[in-house]
């Protein structure tokens, strides 16, 4: 896009709190929203469940237990239109550089487009070319995945990667564990704490291990430290950098990265690449998903892509008022900026989805945890809530106490499967009953003269219902969350696709690491200097008495 057009595109946007709809929402909140009672709304409207439920591909959503009515949704939709949500969505589709701080397009949806058409009939040449590149890489990666699955010599696949290069694949592989290949194990290593890799290496043999070094940049410190430790271990146990040796590094180490040169410098000759228009936390659909394809096979990986593509079509084509990512994203704005709710609990009633909250923490909080708008100007309103959770029913016996009776209102997202997995299927109805009961208890509450037994009720929740957990429904669910994050980020006027907030800590860590060895505390703040001295003293000592 020419520079001038870009500027127009950026400057035409109206910040959400400067729109008439925002003012109207404030008035609506004061008039009825603040004291809205979901129980009363159900009593007044027998059709409420139907009106506030939404079909989307592979996901059905019941939004009826939320503190919204038709007027709220209408005003939120006005807000979306006045903030230019549809134009933003179109800009993403057209490959415009909506990641403005890095001047990058955001095209992860292209990774799951079937052929043809590549990028759509009206695709710009750059998108059509990107689509061709995607399919070439996908085919190479999938045939490699299937060849690994057929290789009886390989028993262990170790994927080393952190953040977006670890959370998505490990969550998806966990979710699809019923479909793992017998006789092969897929492990994930992220932490620079040597305990993670060290304890794994003790159980492995180099000749039967394949290492996947997953890093978009191939520079991330933790991943590089672990990759080098794995390489040292491999070479110390009979491996060789000679490609003609019996145990060549080039056959047992593969890279998943945009930085082919750095991977080559490491000694890797096979790299499955991707592109700068794929953000790390949106990358499980790319070569970063190779561990998924190895774990469940190429066919199932394509089902994952197909599920996500179905959700993409819904997001890009459904009218805003019947568009599930839009409705959820708008609800997030309503709760965060008008009700002031500061967190949202993810409660998947599915053991397979036990890593979903960890994955969503990065997706949502790294995308939308920003304090400035797309021009870098400070925002006067709150953005991303804290996203957290644990699978049900475990959470019920841990923190649900607070959700039922605590002083904070925490909207809960129940994820429920109509059909359970293959193991102990007779327990599934108990699991589902618990999810429904929690949502019911949160909404209905219970009056009691005894304060300890009183439940105030009117506590909001959403139910996302999947037929069953498989690659297709998982793909759709994850794409739903991706688009929802786009919707709320777009309305907040922030760049959801950069992550400058992680840089400072990285720089300070590289400054401190040599100081831990040298003891040089010069120029450090008092707390860091004190801890550095204590860490180097070799023993826990009481604090010095104050003068
Ligand atoms: O894939 P990599 O380049 O190794 O990056 C891994 C992760 O680290 C960074 O610090 C970012 O916070 C993440 O967005 C990214 O996913």
Please describe what this structure looks like:
This is Glucose-6-phosphate isomerase. GO terms for molecular function: glucose-6-phosphate isomerase activity. InterPro entries: G6P_Isomerase, G6P_Isomerase_C, Phosphoglucose_isomerase_CS, SIS_dom_sf, SIS_PGI_1, SIS_PGI_2. The active site is at 366 (proton donor), 397, 506. The model is unreliable at 1-9 (pLDDT under 50). The protein is 47% helix and 10% strand. It is globular, with a radius of gyration of 25 Å. The chain is α/β, with parallel strands linked by helices and 547 residues long. The longest helix has 26 residues, at 125-150. A hairpin with a 2-residue loop joins strand 1 (53-56) and strand 2 (59-62). Residues 162-165, 215-217, 220, 223, 280-281, 366, 499, 502 line the site of 6-O-phosphono-alpha-D-glucopyranose.
Question: Any chance you could write out the topology, listing elements then pairs?
Answer:
Elements (H helix, E strand, L loop, with lengths): L2 H9 L8 H14 L4 H7 L3 H4 L1 E4 L2 E4 L7 H13 L2 H9 L31 H26 L5 E5 L6 H9 L9 E5 L4 H8 L7 E6 L6 H16 L12 H4 E4 L3 H7 L4 E2 L17 H7 L1 H20 L6 H16 L3 E6 L7 H13 L17 E4 L10 H6 L6 E6 L10 H17 L16 E6 L4 H22 L10 H16 L7 H12 L10
Parallel strand pairs: 3-4, 3-5, 5-6, 6-7, 8-9, 8-10, 10-11
Antiparallel strand pairs: 1-2, 2-11
Helix pairs in contact: 2-5, 5-15, 7-13, 8-13, 8-16, 13-14, 14-19, 15-19, 16-19
In short:
Belongs to the GPI family. This protein is 47% helix and 10% strand.
């Amino acid at each position: 896009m020419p520079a001038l057009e870009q500027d127009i595109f950026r400057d035409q946007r109206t910040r959400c709190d400067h729109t008439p709809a925002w003012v109207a929402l404030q008035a609506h909140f004061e008039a009825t929203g603040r004291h809205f009672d979901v129980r009363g709304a159900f009593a007044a409207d027998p059709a409420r469940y139907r009106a506030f439920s939404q079909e989307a591909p592979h996901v059905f959503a019941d939004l009826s237990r939320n503190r919204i009515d038709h007027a709220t949704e209408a005003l939120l939709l006005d807000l979306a239109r006045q903030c230019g949500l549809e134009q933003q969505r179109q800009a993403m589709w057209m490959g415009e550089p909506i990641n403005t701080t890095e001047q990058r397009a955001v095209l992860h949806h292209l990774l799951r487009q079937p052929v043809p058409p590549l990028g759509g009939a009206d695709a710009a040449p750059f998108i059509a070319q990107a689509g061709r590149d995607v399919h070439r890489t996908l085919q190479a990666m999938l045939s490699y995945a299937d060849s690994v699955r057929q290789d009886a010599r390989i028993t262990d696949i170790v994927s080393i990667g952190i953040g977006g290069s670890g959370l998505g694949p490990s969550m998806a592989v966990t979710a699809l564990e019923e479909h793992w290949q017998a006789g092969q194990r897929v492990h994930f290593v992220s932490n620079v704490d040597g305990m993670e890799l060290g304890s794994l290496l003790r159980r492995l043999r180099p000749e039967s291990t394949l290492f996947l070094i997953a890093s978009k940049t191939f520079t991330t410190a933790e991943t590089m430290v672990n990759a080098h430790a794995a390489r040292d271990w491999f070479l110390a146990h009979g491996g060789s950098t000679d490609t003609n040796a019996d145990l060549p590094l080039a056959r047992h180490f593969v890279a998943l990265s945009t930085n082919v040169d750095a991977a080559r410098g490491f000694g890797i000759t096979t790299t499955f690449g991707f592109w700068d228009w794929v953000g790390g936390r949106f990358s499980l659909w790319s070569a970063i998903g190779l561990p998924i394809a190895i774990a469940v096979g190429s066919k199932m990986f394509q089902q994952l892509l197909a599920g996500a593509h179905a959700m993409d079509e819904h997001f890009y084509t459904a009218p805003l008022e019947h568009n599930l990512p839009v409705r959820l994203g708008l609800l997030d704005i309503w709760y965060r900026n008008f009700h002031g709710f500061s967190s949202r609990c993810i409660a998947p009633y599915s053991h397979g989805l036990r890593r979903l909250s960890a994955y969503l923490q990065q997706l949502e909080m790294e995308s939308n945890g920003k304090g400035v708008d797309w021009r870098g100007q400070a925002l006067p309103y709150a953005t991303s809530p804290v996203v957290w959770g644990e699978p049900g029913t475990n959470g019920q016996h841990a923190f649900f106490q607070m959700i039922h009776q605590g002083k904070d209102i925490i909207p809960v997202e129940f994820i429920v499967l109509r059909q359970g997995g293959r193991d102990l299927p007779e327990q599934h109805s108990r699991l589902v009953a618990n999810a429904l009961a929690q949502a019911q208890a949160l909404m209905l509450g219970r009056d009691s003269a005894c304060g300890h037994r009183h439940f105030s009720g009117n506590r909001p929740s959403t139910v996302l219902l999947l037929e069953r957990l498989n690659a297709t429904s998982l793909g759709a669910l994850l794409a739903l969350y991706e688009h929802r994050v786009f919707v709320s980020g777009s309305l907040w006027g922030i760049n959801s696709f950069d992550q400058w907030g992680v840089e400072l800590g990285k720089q300070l860590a590289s400054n401190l690491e040599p100081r831990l060895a040298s003891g040089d505390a010069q120029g450090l703040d008092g707390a860091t200097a004190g801890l550095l001295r204590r860490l180097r003293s070799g023993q826990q000592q009481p604090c010095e008495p104050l003068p």
